[in-house]
Design goal:
Elements (H helix, E strand, L loop, with lengths): L7 E6 L10 H14 L3 E6 L11 H5 L9 E6 L5 H14 L3 E5 L20 H13 L2 E3 L5 E3 L6 E6 L6 H17 L3 E4 L5 H13 L7 E5 L3 H9 L9 H11 L6 H18 L3 E5 L4 H13 L5 H7 L27 H8 L9 H14 L6 H13 L3 H18 L17 H4 L25 H11 L23 H6 L31
């Protein structure tokens, strides 16, 4: 559908907490039936515990439509299930005939029975995509009799999310780099998070084009009202942005006789028209509780002239103060081209600015890594032999080494003694100590103004970006396969596990080696031969 050249529309449906509050489920089923009956609406997308609250799982609602599985997209998030639970959910979806999966890290939980739920985040979106891609290729696991067991291949059409509505370069660029990584390891279509500056939506396509990546990108539209706009403006809903400038406009129209109803619908319709004009594969509508409203907005979007979208593009540019753009947009048209990269950004790559994140301790950590932890260099071979002998005959020296490692890394990095260390992956910042979601594969979409989704610290990956950019390494920050933490190594020596090839630095998940991945950076594709 997404590659057929016809501009379809997707509709978002949100399940409920509770199985039948005043017939709400019947209303959702009825609305979904009406949506699927509209030939312009190509699919219905069902959310997975949005906002961090527990709700009915997406396949419960989708399962009400026997024979329509190909028109259902199920969200799958990492906040409530560990990797075994995610794999089990994926097998269930495949067994039920659901193949369109939107793989998401997920919001931090906001509520739960008896108090706030403890999030899982055993995998993040990158790890989940890696799992789903491995299932598509025939998941291989060690068999009980020795050797390898291979499961039947699934046929998931894997989607991913990117969050382009970030104010600062240090937030935005890791989002783009992570998106490339997601596509490289198996994602096949993209939907950006929510915002109301069409230039930022366009930048997602421009960034992909600049790297020779050709995948379907879906435009995301959420029907605003005053209450939702205030929520998005406050930064309390992860990844959803309404700028102060747009909020002023919302307040003006919301004070009118219709409470802004006509303005909000027109804004949504104009966004859809811009997506179609810019060559997006489809438009995605959310924030709507009646099937008729979806139809009315689509009718309005299709009533515009074929070139009206150009004026709408210039009109819908509600950016944040001082917001960073990767591409240099023409102020007359609002458009840019893949070769019009922000010149100030390009200059900064040659002369990176100083950063408070580039501390003396960070410099020393890099030096120690070069000397002792870089394969084939310095002391690596010698220490590999030493730890090998200690592993065969544990004794006082091996126990002292582990004690020294644990205490020094806790003091220097806040180490949580996971045994599968990602300090080299994360510019010597510990993801378990400094990231609310413990992400080892890149930023979630929840940061706001450079702050963590929980607003209790600076965004972990923004800090990493500043460190790597100073050394000219930001462009390669997500090269390589997904980092999959092995919990068997918890409370063991990460030094020993590195030298003895037990951790993720030595091996990746099955079929996920760097050599096995298609190179999208060089114009490859997301599926072998496609």
């Amino acid at each position: 559908m997404l590659s057929g050249g016809h501009f379809y529309y997707g509709a978002e449906v949100v399940t409920t907490r509770g199985f039948a509050p005043e017939g709400t489920q019947d209303q959702l089923v009825g609305m979904s039936s009406e949506l699927l009956a509209d030939p312009r609406i190509g699919w219905v997308s069902v959310t997975d515990n949005p906002g961090g609250a527990p709700m009915l799982p997406p396949d419960y609602l989708a399962g009400k439509f026997s024979g329509r599985q190909s028109q259902m997209v199920l969200h799958l998030t990492c906040k409530d299930l560990n990797r075994n639970g995610l794999e089990a959910a994926a097998w269930r979806y495949a067994a039920e005939g659901f193949e369109n999966i939107l793989a998401i890290t997920g919001d931090y939980p906001t509520t739960g029975f008896g108090g706030l739920a403890d999030p899982v985040f055993d995998l993040d979106s990158v790890g989940l995509i890696s799992l789903l891609r491995s299932m598509n290729r025939g998941l291989k696991i060690p068999s009980r009799r020795g050797g390898t067991e291979t499961f039947p291949k699934t046929n998931f059409f894997i989607g991913c999310v990117v969050s382009p509505f970030k104010r600062h370069e240090r937030e935005l660029m890791p989002q783009y780099f992570k998106l490339v990584r997601k596509l490289r390891i198996g994602a096949e279509w993209v939907i950006p998070q929510l915002g109301y500056d069409m230039r930022k939506f366009h930048e997602v396509k421009l960034m992909l084009q600049s790297r020779g990546i050709d995948v379907p990108v879906i435009g995301n539209v959420y029907l605003l009202n005053r209450a939702v706009a205030k929520l998005f403006n406050s930064g309390q809903l992860a990844g959803c942005v309404v700028s102060d400038a747009l909020m002023e406009t919302v307040e003006k129209y919301a004070a009118g006789p219709d409470k802004g109803r006509a303005f909000f619908r027109e804004l949504a319709a104009k966004q859809l028209a811009v997506f179609k004009g810019l060559g997006f594969s489809a438009g995605y509508l959310g924030g709507i509780s009646k099937a008729a409203t979806f139809g009315e907005i689509i009718d309005l979007a299709e009533s515009y002239g074929p070139e009206d979208w150009r004026e709408f593009l210039k009109e819908i540019q509600y950016s944040q103060p001082g917001e960073f753009f990767l591409f240099d947009h023409d102020p007359q048209t609002g458009l840019a081209a893949p070769d019009r990269i922000n010149p100030e950004y390009l200059r900064s790559l040659d002369r990176p600015p100083k950063s408070k994140e580039v501390t003396l301790w960070y410099r020393m950590s890099r030096l120690v890594h070069d000397v002792a932890f870089t394969r084939g260099k310095g002391l690596y071979g010698f220490l590999q032999r030493v730890f090998g002998r200690w592993d065969k005959k544990p004794g006082l020296m091996s126990r002292f080494s582990y004690w020294l490692e644990r205490e020094s890394k806790h003091l220097g990095y806040g180490c949580q003694d996971c045994g599968d260390c990602s300090l080299p992956d994360c510019a010597y910042l510990c993801p378990l100590a400094h990231c609310s979601k413990g992400s080892r594969n890149g930023p979630c979409g929840g940061s706001c103004g450079g702050r963590c989704e929980l607003d209790d610290k600076e965004c972990f990956w923004a800090r990493i970006y500043e460190r790597l950019k100073y050394y000219g390494e930001s462009q390669e920050m997500f090269v390589g396969p997904a980092v999959l933490y092995d919990a068997r190594l918890k409370h063991t020596s990460a030094w020993a596990n590195t030298y003895l090839d037990r951790d993720h630095h030595a091996s990746a998940a099955p079929a996920e080696s760097a050599d096995d991945e298609p190179s999208l950076e060089n114009g490859g594709t997301t599926k072998d031969g496609n």
